[in-house]
Amino acid sequence: MPKIAFVCTRNRFRSPLAAAILQRELAGRNIPGEWVIESAGSWVHDLVPPTPEAFIEAAKRCLDISSHTAQGIEALDLDSIDLLLVMEQGQKESILLDFPQLTNRTFLLSELSGPAFSIPDPYVTKEPCDVIAQEIETIVKDNFEAIISLAEGISQLSQKKNK
Asked: What does DSSP say about strands 106-108 and 3-8: parallel, antiparallel, or unpaired?
């Protein structure tokens, strides 16, 4: 059962959308097996719902994020995560400092499509939320096979180690 988690800063816009997009792609492409898709934030203070802009972008894509509540990365069972996909280089560096056991399982989402780059936080950079949401959707859809293949490979290695 491969487990993938997406991480952004507050777990209220980028990572919940990325998780919902991947879940939709898994269902739509009839990928076999049980998959666990989660999201978390690297800096979460309150257990709050997604931002209004996240709901708007989710609705445009027929995604349901209504049950999502922000959670910090420390709420995840990090030992069971096969693939951790983060939005920004600084998040990756910080996570790997705090959780070095995730070194071979943590990647920038953009790394799967070529040269790595940070997907900006629209609440910090003031870039339009619709542009950021579209970028996330495009990366997830265009790199779907790479995401699935990487998660399955890591999951199989973990299972072999635990035998």
From this structure: unpaired
Q: What is the pTM of this model?
A: 0.94
CB-count exposure of residue 134 (10 Å: 0-12, 13-18, 19+):
middle
Written as one string, the DSSP assignment of 37-89 is EEEEESS--S--PPPHHHHHHHHHTT---TT----BGGGS-GGG-SEEEES-H
Instruction: Summarize pLDDT for 5-56 with one digit per residue, the tens.
Output: 999 999 999 999 999 999 999 999 988 889 999 999 998 988 899 999 999 9
d(CA 83, CA 35): 12
